[in-house]
Amino acid sequence: MIASMTNGFTPEGRLEGITMQIADWHGGVKILGLIYRRFYSTQSDADHCTMYSDRSHIDRRNVTNDPHSNYRPNRDFFLLILQSRIIAGAMKILGFDSKEGQPKLFNIPVDIARKTNIQKLSILHAAAGMVVDKYAFAESNIDQLIDNVSTEQEQQDIRNNQQLTLDGRFPCRFPGCNKSFVLDGKSGKNHERTHDPPIPIELPTPNLEKPKKDQEKKDVERDDMFSYNSALVADGLYFLNFLDAVSEGDGDRIIRQYKNMLMYCRADHKHSTKYALECLYQFSLVFALLSHRGRERFTWNRSVNNNGVIGKNIPLDLDVEHSNNYLKQAIKHLGPNLTEKAFSRICKSEKGVRKITHCMDETLKRSRDPGKQSPSSTTGDLKELMKRLTEHNAMTKMPLRLYNYFDHFEVDPFKGLDTSVMYSWINEHKKNVSIGIRAR
């Protein structure tokens, strides 16, 4: 498909008219893969309260370092790890002595039982906001990211607002110089630097290096355990938000999650280049290229609800995987009788056969095997993780708690992301899309 889109000589060969999108189930797998790449390592067993250390502690031997080939066990394990951190953090911030106790640092109204559901939800949001503000947004570097983008925008405006010559060339900006250039590129900049005094080509970029004293102070106060677990809560809440948006079928929220995913993929550099590009192409379709009808279909036609229960949507690509599994089971029973005609008949009759068998099961009161084992209780594992977090005060900042493998762990996942470079990268691909060129 990729080759046909790139090298096709006809509209049909280039698959024109077919709108490509990132499948949400695979998008969730990618997000979990980014999280495991950052937080999971088999070399970190000696670092207490890390994912691999906890995996060894509760003996989750079905967890690996590759969510792409082992998604469900890895997802369930990560959600358990995240749940333990959220509970431990909430107990610390709100002043709980135990999970069954009352908060000492958060006021719950005495007459809460008589409150409406909306009022109760408001109280819950206030308590949750205290935890999120402490662990998810405590050391956000968003101001620096915005400053870098603003500086790059100003530089771009300077280049775009240059006065061209009558024949459309870029003149040298030194007074009295008649030299001009076809492009506003390296040759023109090198020429302008030869003048005395040289022409300042670009605005000074913001100083990203912190003063030496501030860096030394930060090293003295460094707490790798707290930084690691705070970052895990922040990234885990993003993953939960993505899964919840898909389950609710909330197309607008899913598109917003892909904006975050674009940042994560850019920060992952060469490991996620294609996903970052596909995220950008999605925004081009939603905000510029598609018609209003196409935009609504692209945004909201991403999931399916097969049982009519609110909050139980599944992504379309996962539904296709379920369909493929159903067909494979039917084909397997044919044995040597499998032919192309039989295969085609099975595929075409899948929906009808499923409906008939479901009606028969309902009529006969037959319990259907869901095809999966009942999940085991995680209460014991959660207690063990909570006990360990409490013993090490993992959710409390304490100076000079250092990790061996996750040394100098950075809370902000976008710390090494140069947003000025990303700004130029976005503009470059916007131009490519406008002239019909798309990297595949």
Automatic annotation (TrEMBL):
Comp. bias intervals (Basic and acidic residues): 186-196, 209-221
Residue ranges occupied by any DUF6589 domain in the UniProt entry: 14-367
A matching Pfam family: DUF6589
Record region (Disordered): 185-221, 363-383
UniProt protein name: DUF6589 domain-containing protein
Annotated organism of origin: Stylophora pistillata
